[in-house]
UniProtKB/TrEMBL annotation:
<dbReference type="InterPro" id="IPR053002">
    <property type="entry name" value="Metalloproteinase_M10B"/>
</dbReference>
<dbReference type="InterPro" id="IPR036404">
    <property type="entry name" value="Jacalin-like_lectin_dom_sf"/>
</dbReference>
<dbReference type="GO" id="GO:0005737">
    <property type="term" value="C:cytoplasm"/>
</dbReference>
<dbReference type="Pfam" id="PF12044">
    <property type="entry name" value="Metallopep"/>
</dbReference>
<protein>
    <recommendedName>
        <fullName>Jacalin-type lectin domain-containing protein</fullName>
    </recommendedName>
</protein>
<dbReference type="InterPro" id="IPR021917">
    <property type="entry name" value="Unchr_Zn-peptidase-like"/>
</dbReference>
Length: 724
């Protein structure tokens, strides 16, 4: 007899205190998991069945080094036929077959956390929907709801950890905000004093709404109501309540993430609607948010001993008591699987995931229990009886995070590992880091800028100073193929800073049945995405501009907003000797001074503190200087004006041998500001306001800027370069 652990090696380090260990065994029976050596006062032994020679065990870890023993025993797990949500273990005979596993748990406290929240009406009764058989055994009070929510979120963490490591991305998972509190992971803790023991656990923010129970349960706000007039109202309500609550969500704080459950969700048997419930994920510039209702919470376990029984409880449910969401919740375990999986789906949206061809971000979470169990009980949805995992340790259908989701999470600030910082090819997505807003003069230092596209024959050059890590090809609303540029530490080539995307090459990558259809291309980088809605149309459309002297150029991506009348200004940037930027709280215009020879003599300059800046792909890191004082410009220089001339301006003149190399714009609904950069690495100050996001304009390799185009109103509303 032997026990073989298949998914962990000795002395691995994980970032979650509950891990899923998979293994095989040469005989049937039970696996006893003895936590933390043989000290049962810390955490009681847990038991998991061996089916077809395979087992899956949930292992609780304390901070630091843990030695966990897996012991084969002859026994059985018994459930009460009248209450299958819990189980008892009968051990007939122990064996001397042990498999030790040494594993280290180190929380990554610097990661940006997701805050778990529970919103309750200001007159809430503080109870949740539950069928009679559950209420008689455990009740449905508020403290129980908090315990269930904590453990459910911990299972989402555990599941994501296993998915990330199985794809070669390391033992990482998203972080929840935690606190030192008395809580009960095990029944043994709870049975001692009814409170548990003090340890770190997921913090649940309890937010009392300013709305009443009747207002939250307004049928017009029920997301599944086809006649509702405000079916997305709970999402905006949750955002408002979080901001009013303050704490990590208050104005001026760094960006935050929240997973919110509405405790007062309820099944209305007359309307046949779940009220005070919506399954939505997204957010605004300050808060990334997922919301869900508590209608399935009654089947979530509250102790680790009850997790597997909860996944196998095939008690039939009735819509006279509780909801049958999507007609896929006919039994207790199906309700647990769907409600927890659907909440995790919305958390996926809040972390940046779109819908996918398969996995959590489709609806494969109806198979979520198979990730934790080796045995499946009766399923009302399929009418299938009991089934077992295959002898190869796999199920025919098992729920996974799609690889595209995992690549997004690999670059997300909530799933970092300390070792990531040692890989220079590994840049996190800036918005997800939540390190607070930088002063506008500093935000251009280092890796910044959304990706930009430059039209070329039969394709597009995409450039990004923050590094491109993924290109997706969407057909019919879902990604059908993709190109990965993973960090070198996980086996990839590293992020790319400019790419040539060719239409025919991308067509060959997608499955044949999706070819020759409208293809949306999405390029993901450290500072945002670049999207081309119809790539074939983009490749064939005429983006050329005919300038004076027979010069023909291509338009870059437009920054800002498209208006009715386009303005084009021709200026060969190779001949420019300086610029005058007109600005206030936004960019009003830029005048480029053109000279035939050397620029005129300039008065002395004072420079600010040196800062590092990442230059072109082929250049190494340089020292750059921040311009703090502008020289006078000769009155009789020839010049070209783009935009408007105002009384408020700043001059920035080039030194001998310098040229303008790139222009960093702050833009959103219009163009807020610009920072000018030269070939020697000098930069101007931030000239304009501090709104919008940063985007860099520069010509593709081998080409130069021949002019500017855009749109004007009271100030510059849109701007782009013409290159050739």
């Amino acid at each position: 007899m032997s026990i073989n652990i298949t998914n962990y090696q000795q002395n691995e380090t994980v970032s979650c205190p509950l891990v899923l260990v998979k293994g095989t065994c040469t005989t049937s029976g039970l696996i006893r998991v003895i936590h933390h050596g043989l000290d049962q006062n810390k955490f009681p032994a847990q038991y998991f069945s061996v089916d077809n020679g395979c087992f899956r065990a949930l292992v609780h870890l304390e901070g630091g080094e843990n030695t966990v023993y897996f012991q084969l025993v002859d026994g059985e797990i018994r459930t009460d036929e009248t209450y299958r949500a819990t189980a008892s273990v009968v051990v007939h005979r122990e064996s001397n077959t042990f498999a030790p596993l040494k594993i280290h748990y180190v929380p990554v406290v610097q990661n940006k956390p997701i805050h778990v929240c529970m919103i309750v009406a200001k007159d809430s009764p503080l109870v949740f929907d539950t069928p009679g058989y559950k209420k008689a055994k455990e009740g449905n009070g508020f403290d129980l709801a908090v315990r269930k929510l904590r453990l459910g979120c911990r299972l989402m963490q555990t599941y994501t950890l296993e998915e990330m490591r199985a794809n070669g991305f390391g033992n990482r998972t998203f972080a929840f905000a935690e606190e030192w509190t008395c809580s009960s992971l095990s029944k043994q803790d709870f049975d001692k004093n009814g409170e548990g023991r003090a340890h770190m656990d997921i913090k649940v923010h309890v937010i009392t709404s300013r709305k009443t129970l009747a207002e939250l349960r307004d049928p017009n706000m029920a997301q599944q109501n086809p006649k509702g007039s405000n079916t997305g109202g709970l999402f905006s309500h949750a955002l408002d309540e979080l901001k009013h609550y303050g704490g990590p969500f208050e104005e001026g704080h760094r960006t935050a993430q929240a997973a919110v459950m509405y405790l007062d969700a309820t099944w209305d048997t007359q309307l046949q609607l779940i009220l005070a419930h919506a399954a939505l994920g997204g957010g605004d510039d300050r808060i990334s948010l997922a919301i869900f209702g508590s209608q399935g919470l009654h089947l979530w376990p509250s102790f680790v001993e009850d997790i597997i029984p909860a996944f196998q409880d095939d008690t039939r449910l009735s819509i006279t008591e509780v909801a049958n969401d999507c007609n896929q919740c006919g039994t207790s375990w199906e309700t647990f699987t769907l409600s927890m999986g659907a909440f995790m789906h919305e958390i996926g949206h809040s972390l940046g995931s779109p819908h996918q061809e398969s996995g959590v971000m489709l609806r494969d979470y109806i198979f979520l229990q198979r990730s934790f169990c080796t045995r499946e009980t009766y399923c009302e949805r399929t009418k299938a009886g009991e089934s077992l995992i295959g002898r190869d340790g796999k199920w025919p259908n098992e729920c996974h995070w799609h690889r595209l989701d995992l690549i997004r999470y690999l670059h997300h600030g909530s799933l970092g590992l300390p070792t990531d910082a040692y890989d220079p090819s590994f840049q996190k997505r800036t918005k997800t880091l939540g390190n607070g807003a930088k002063p506008v003069d500093q935000i251009y230092t280092g890796v910044q800028g959304q990706p930009l596209g430059f039209h070329v024959s039969q394709g597009c050059i995409v450039k990004s100073t923050s590094g491109i890590y993924l290109v997706e090809m969407d057909v019919d609303g879902l990604a059908r193929a993709w190109i990965e540029y993973l960090p070198k530490t996980v086996g990839g080539p590293g992020q790319q800073y400019d790419l040539l995307l060719n239409y025919e090459e991308l067509q060959r990558r997608i499955p044949e049945r999706f070819r020759n259809k409208k293809m949306h291309v999405r390029v993901l980088s450290g500072c945002g995405d670049f999207n081309i809605d119809d790539f074939e149309k983009y490749c064939h459309e005429d983006s050329t501009v005919r300038l004076g002297g027979g010069v023909v150029g291509y338009k870059s991506t437009l920054l800002g907003r498209l208006l009715e009348h386009e303005v084009v200004a021709q200026v060969d940037m190779n001949l420019v000797i300086g610029a005058r930027v007109y600005h206030g709280r936004a960019l009003d215009g830029i005048r480029f001074f053109v000279g035939a020879g050397a620029p005129p003599a300039l008065p002395p300059r004072n420079y600010g503190e040196k800062q590092g800046f990442l230059g072109k792909v082929t250049q190494k890191l340089k020292d750059v200087k921040l311009e703090s004082q502008s020289p006078q410009v000769p009155v009789h220089s020839d010049s070209v004006l783009f935009g408007k001339e105002t009384k408020d301006y700043t001059d920035f003149m080039l030194n001998p041998g310098e040229r303008f190399s790139r222009f960093h714009f702050r833009n959103g609904g219009w163009v807020d500001a610009v920072v000018l950069e030269t070939t020697s690495g000098r930069r101007s100050a931030n000239l304009g306001g501090g709104g919008g996001h940063v985007t860099t304009l520069e010509a593709p390799p081998g080409l130069s800027i021949q002019g500017w185009y855009g749109f004007m109103d009271r100030w510059v509303y849109g701007i782009g370069i013409v290159y050739g």
